[in-house]
């Protein structure tokens, strides 16, 4: 019994683990909430593109000796708005615009980094994440941005719902659909920024999509999908950090793979919709 | 300008008060592509009017112009005598059924409540009154027993009725319905048509874009036949002549009149 208690308590006796848990839990929860709209609007590709694009801003800020998080945020925001703008012009397909822009911003990052002498350490953290290196100031900043994002989602819930479900009717009803679309992209950019340190730009898309997709298999309303998704995100963060601590492996990878395990479970066993359930009751 | 030709026709109707919908010389399009060319017609209040024409003839664009979503290059639209973009509560609308995401996790009652969102404005939450209006609209299309169902679980006919309930919840006297018969079998279409006649009897004006020419010829009060420009408008019996149909569809269509029944086919 003591062994179990030790097993569960040991990681949290270290302050860097407590900081890491706070950051990872906040980021996972808010990423799942915004990820719900990303999934329902079929924007997964943008969810992958913005973190990559932010690397350009991270590199520019690093070279200039400025705050890299702010740099990454600005790059993600500019890319998000450009994607929205080019997509609305209708000259090329939306996913083509995304592909061109995010690779360009990422390449800009590589270009700048290749001119730096000592780039490996600091910048690597943004590629693969280093949640155990966050400071309390990082946690406070993450919490602040997360609160703003959640507040906006709650305030504009009705509009986000309407625009995601049926944007033609939303526009006919006089809703500012263009601004809502830009706003959603901006929220995505903010989530990207706070996710960078936790899981790194390669894995941000997993936090956005995997818990929300799991929740979609288990729920029957948008509210439920957001709250269940956020819960799955937080639980994945906790379990992922246990795995990282006890198995001495990467925290970000553990969190993402835990979330993936939840998705596989839901995919197989979700009531009515799961693959196993449907195999048992083929008549449904 | 075609405006001049139609002026006399418009005056005939104005004696009984403003038209439900009065479109005058509307040209519109996207970029350099012109979708509508000098479109002029009107619809009297309290009638079931059909909007027919081949694919790409500008039916959806015309609906969007009326709704104020597409600004016309020239021309005027007035709804119950008021020009410009209709304010909330004047017009109800259902888009084409395939523009809606049917996998979305929302229930029938949540979808119908969206009919109130235009009137509410940003951020404000729907009130108890809005929920009551939505519930009445669901009752009106006889879907109350399915109100809590996910929309993805509805049949084709029920999906169309849910969208019409949402248009009713907008509380407009003019309803614009884009392809409400798409994908329906004969029974479901018949049910929907009966609902349309009931709504007209209650004083609503329905403007329905459809591909079902026979249905309009048979059951509608009024027809507008377009192909970028108006080929003909008025009573279906007058509109659906072989001459105007062939002009609109640019091919030969067969019009068969058997007693008081009309069939149109290829």
Quickly describe the structure:
The complex is a heterodimer of chains A (284) and B (266). Chain A has helices at 2-9, 15-40, 44-64, 68-89, 94-114, 120-128, 136-155, 157-165, 167-172, 177-199, 204-218, 222-247, 251-269, 275-280.
Task: Describe the model.
With 284 residues, chain A is mainly alpha-helical. Chain A has one domain: ABC transporter involved in vitamin B12 uptake, BtuC (Orthogonal Bundle). Chain A has helices at 2-9, 15-40, 44-64, 68-89, 94-114, 120-128, 136-155, 157-165, 167-172, 177-199, 204-218, 222-247, 251-269, 275-280. The longest helix of chain A is centred in the N-terminal third of the chain and has 26 residues, at 15-40. Chain A starts with a helix and ends with a helix. Chain B is built from 10 helices and 12 strands. In chain B, the strands form 3 sheets. Chain B has a 6-stranded mixed β-sheet, with helices on both faces. Chain B has a 4-stranded antiparallel β-sheet with strand order 2-1-4-5, sandwiched between helices. Chain B has one domain: Rossmann fold (3-Layer(aba) Sandwich), CATH 3.40.50.300. In chain B, helix 7 links the parallel strand 7 (174-178) and strand 8. The A-B interface holds A 40, 155-156, 158-159, 161-162, 164-166, 168-176, 216, 219-222, 224-225 and B 64, 67, 69, 85, 88, 93-95, 99-101, 104-107, 110-111, 114, 117-118, 120, 122-126, 150, 166, 170.
